[in-house]
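User: Hello, can you help with two protein structures?

Assistant: Certainly.
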Amino acid sequence: MDVSLTLIVIMAVLFAAGVYAMMERSLTRVLIGFLLLGNATNLLLLIVMGVPGKAPFFGEEGAISDPLPQALTLTAIVITFAVSAFLLALIYRSWQLGQADTVEDDVDDIALRERTDAEEELFDDESSPDEEEATTDFVGTATSPITVLHMRDHAAIDDDAPMDVPDPSPRSAGPADDDAEGDRS
């Protein structure tokens, strides 16, 4: 399998540029970065496909191409299209509401950014070792495995609902027996 070094370099540059663009706060740049990542993924699948061959039909002789990377490429194209359409709708709505496509910091983001290392350690030390050992919400009560009980196991419940209890009579009434009893009466 002879893969061109140029394709590998282009794929690496597309991945790097896509990740860099997705780190921006502008939704348009996030969209461009996602499109670059989608194209880099398609190029990766093209590289993985190997040497091109004949179409993979039954009875075809000679070198045939692998159909799996082709199917994965089609899937990647569809996913890239769907997420791009969603991002475009998100950008359009953001532009309608605020005349900008940047993601702004909210109050929680600002408070999280302004936390100091001492406050971080304080938040980490709030849990005690006793709380870490508890695995259920029922602390202090003995737990046991789940036991499945049937309706007949509950004698205290007086219910008129029919139960699956075998008929104690030795005779089983079939359709022919029902007709015979109806004729006798």
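That covers the first. Now for the second protein you mentioned:
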Amino acid sequence: MSSPCDPEYAPVGDIDAALLVIDSQLKAVYNGRSGPDPEQEQMVNQLTASLGPGGVEALVDGACTLIYMFMSWLRAACEEQDEDVIAHVVPSLVASMRMMPMSFRPEVIPTMTGLVVAAGTGLSPNLWRAQYGEWTGAEMTPLEATAVLLADHINRLAGDDHDFATRLITDALSRADQD
């Protein structure tokens, strides 16, 4: 039986824009800066300034799609090791969130954890979240940071390859374009 949160019913959103934002944040983290590279920040600012109301929604949907894709990759990697993806990812993710009170206020941690669990069990994170109403402004930074934390987790699993998660997505998008 199909779930109303099945990914086939979910909007994909603007994955390219979401990946640009996430990649910019990853580069800032890896370069030891508290913010993105000024050139990257300018690109992200231009991108977000060009978005209309539908563009912001597409960016949010794109971030949720990234979370889904990251968790799908992590689920496959965990299954190869006979591990449960939820047990592997969620405890360290929640611990990281709790250490970042400026990005993750305590009240958004359950929602972001729920997004990750939904994606880890094969459900669409954005459709799962939609059950509880509209996105709030207070959830935007945690949503971005959740995608960054998952990408960083993947990069560390790939031997500290700082671009692995980004390549994972761009390769998947390239294959989808070819099909």
